[in-house]
Amino acid sequence: MSVGFDLIAEAARTLRPLIVETPLVGSPGLDAAAGAHVLCKADNLQRTGSFKYRGACFRLSRLTAEERARGVIAFSSGNFAQALAAAGAAAGVAVTIVMPVDAPRTKIDATRGYGAEVVLSEHGARNREEAANELAMSIAAQRGLTKLHPFDDEYVVAGQASCGSEILRQAAARGETLDALVVPVGGSGLIAGVALAVRKLSPGTRVIGAEPEGFDDLRRSLDAGVRQRVVPGARSICDALQAATPGAVPFGAAQDAIAEGVSVTDAEAVAGMRAAFVHLKLVCEPSGAIALGAVLAGKISGAPRTIGVVLSGGNIALEDYIRLLAA
Question: Is 61 a catalytic residue?
Answer without folding.
Answer: no
